[in-house]
Amino acid sequence: MTTVDLAAPATRTAPRPLADVVTMTRRNLLRAVRYPGLTMFLVAGPLVMLLLFVYVFGGAFGAGVAPGVEPGAEGRAAYLDYIAPTLLVLTVVGAGQSVAIGAAMDAAGGIMARFRTMAISPGSVLSGQVVGTVLQSLAAVALVLGAALAMGYRPAADAADWLALVGFLVLLGVALAWACVGMGLSARSVESASNTPMILLLLPFLGSGFVPVETMPTAVRWFAEHQPFTPIIDTTRGLLAGGPLDAAVTAQAVAWCVVIGVAGYAWSRSLFRRERRA
Amino acid sequence: MSPTAPGPAIEVAGLHKSYRSRAGEHPVLTGVDLTVPAGTVTALLGPNGAGKTTAVGVLSTLLRPDAGTVRVAGHDVVRDPDAVRARIGVTGQVSAVDDLLTGAENLRLVADLLHLGRAAGRRRVTDLLDRFGLADAAGKRVATYSGGMRRKLDLAMTLVGEPDVVFLDEPTTGLDPRSRRALWDEVRALVAAGTTILLTTQYLEEADHLADAVAVLDGGRVVAHGTPDELKAAHDAGSLDDVFLALTEPPAATDGTTDGTTSSTTSGTTDGTHETSETTEKETLR
């Protein structure tokens, strides 16, 4: 038993939020590596959907998304072209689900209480979750995109489009991750934390994700045109197709991301300090 | 460790805390007064549901007091919570370790969040691993640890920042006798080095062995406070068990609406003894 260093005054430096974010990100990436099941799940979901929608439904659906396309092989190719961008967006959404589970696991265990009794900012603790998730989702997006390319997907994007796409998906990832951290912290249990973000996975279906909104009945179409995922998917699709982008749609997509991100951040921060009954 | 001005490490006056739910307001602490001098151990005793964990929650900035003043390490927990957080360490009932990380990684995480720096952080982690006998398990994931090892790691993480005031909420619950003794030794070493400790416990023997002072919490208030010997003398009791039974309400008497699910360790107390103890108690309370 050494008592030597007990007598030394503790080192307490000024707040360094950026260093804290790096520390927490490292922790969350380490968790991701140690618990690869969740990361695999992030890729497996969109991958299965891609295969199912292209090789089962694609032959017929393709004729409905592009004019003059014959059902069969031509339809499948057209449909792959149509939904590959949607699945990249869905991959980012799925990563949100994993951050909700991570936040709920921390909150259910004692470790969140430990962070809350330390002089570190809530923003730093939670940012670590968000940054880790965005990095994870970019890796998952790359894998899903690789699968789509292997299936014959040929995006026409040039270097600038790709760069813009990465930027846009990071923005989307940050926004969804903050919203999902809030969902995770507000969940009563880890199980419900994994269910709440499911609604986000449904939204692309009720938008321009899998079929053109023009084919929907009025009420559904109205919803599709006014929900965030339609402009988000349209922007992703536009960037992958190498433009031209509809400026209004892109502005809407970015605005939705900013609103979701800022609201999610504020919500998560307030939940971090919320009292949990001892 | 005394560059800090002498004076109480913990000062609580008139602390009230209620929980609100749809069913209404449920008061837990109804006017707690407590002073813990620096460099001493105080044990907070009380029946299940007396509010011990709630009190620790308020003192460690996890819960906001509804009324009263609470100062820890010279700072007000409401006005300056971050100053309090910089000086305290908390080991709660729920283990606050990351199962997916190794023991060493858990300690490094805390060291990094405290900005100890690479070299100092590494040294501190190695010291703590040695001190708590975890060096061999340092590279193993915490998920593989036994209950006793987890508790040791939890406490080690609490001590990374060399806190002035340490809160231990039922630190030895579920530990075997050897692990319990080892933890007691650890507590004594901390106090010898100047740390102030507030611990809650169900084991009166533990309070008797460790504590300079015992505070008995019941019905939302501190109903007795003194050294273990003082309390035993005041209640003409041979052990703290007897003091506990004399001072705390049997569960049935505190709330007529609860069903019989609460454990009834104190149900042996008759109303007669209770009346007498209440009068004695008023005289002996400081």
What does this structure look like?
With 278 residues, chain A is mostly helical. Chain A has a domain at 83-273. Helices cover 74% and strands 0% of the residues of chain A. Chain A is built from eleven helices and no strands. Chain A has helices at residues 17-34, 36-65, 73-108, 111-116, 122-150, 159-186, 190-195, 198-202, 218-226, 229-240, 247-273. In chain A, helix 1 (17-34) packs across helix 5 (122-150) and helix 3 crosses helix 6. The longest helix of chain A has 36 residues, at 73-108. Chain A is elongated and about 65 Å long. Chain B is an alpha/beta fold. Chain B has two domains: 8-87 and 164-173 and 193-284, Rossmann fold (3-Layer(aba) Sandwich), CATH 3.40.50; 93-162, no CATH class. Chain B is 37% helix and 23% strand. Chain B has helices spanning 52-59, 81-85, 103-113, 118-131, 147-159, 177-192, 204-210, 228-234, 240-247, 251-254, 271-284, and strands spanning 8-21, 24-37, 41-45, 67-72, 75-76, 88-91, 165-169, 196-200, 213-218, 221-226. In chain B, the strands form two sheets. A six-stranded mixed beta sheet of chain B has the order 6-7-8-3-9-10, with helices on both faces. A four-stranded antiparallel beta sheet of chain B has the order 2-1-4-5. In chain B, helix 3 (103-113) crosses helix 4 and helix 3 (103-113) packs parallel to helix 5. The longest helix of chain B is centred in the middle third of the chain and has 16 residues, at 177-192. Chain B is globular.
